[in-house]
Amino acid sequence: MSTLCTVSFPGTPYPALWLDGQQNLSEHLTMQNSPVLFGCRTGICGTCLVEVEGDIPAPKPDEREMLDLLAPNQAKARLACQLILTGDIKIRRWTE
Ligand code: FES
Questions:
Q1: How do beta strands 89-93 and 4-8 pair?
Q2: What pTM was computed for the model?
Q3: Cα(42)–Cα(39) distance, rounded to whole angstroms?
Q4: Is 38 close to ligand 1, i.e. is its CB under 6 Å away?
Q5: Could you tell me if 77 and 71 are in contact, meaning their C-beta atoms sit under 8 angstroms apart?
Q6: How many CB atoms sit inside 10 A of residue 83's CB?
Q7: Ligand 1 center to 45 CA (angstroms)
Q8: Which of 10, 47, 5 has its CA nearest to residue 28?
Q9: How far apart are CA 63 and CA 29, in angstroms?
C-alpha cells in the first residue's frame, strides 16, 4: 500500500498536490500545476534544479554529481526530475 504525499510550492499561487508515494515527481508535474521547469527529465540538463524540504531519499550518484556542479554544498538542492516521493515535500524554484 502506498501513502499519499503532499507536494507543496510555498510562495507561489500553485495549490499543493497529493500524489501516491513511490512515484517519480516528473511524471506528475507540468507547466500548469507547478512552478518547476523541466528540460531533459533524465537528470542531465539541470533545468529542474529546486530547493526541497522534506523527507526524501538522498540523491543517487548521478544526481549527486550534477548537484555538485550546479549547487555545491547545498543540502536542499535537488533535481526535481530525479525525485521519488516517499513523504511530504515543499519545493521552491532554485534561486542563487
Ligand atoms: S529536467 Fe533535466 S535535469 Fe531534470
A1: parallel
A2: 0.94
A3: 8
A4: yes
A5: yes
A6: 25
A7: 5
A8: 5
A9: 19
Distance in angstroms (rounded) separating the CA atoms of residues 76 and 94: 10
CB atoms within 10 A of CB 21: 13
Residue of 42, 69, 91, 93 with the most ligand 1 atoms within 8 Å of its CB, for mutation: 42
- pLDDT digit string, tens, across residues 12-70: 999 999 999 999 999 999 999 999 999 999 999 999 999 999 988 899 999 999 999 99
Q: In whole angstroms, give the CA distance from residue 83 to residue 57.
A: 8
What separation in Å is there between the alpha carbon of 66 and the centre of ligand 1?
10
Domains located in the chain, CATH noted: 4-93 (3.10.20.30)
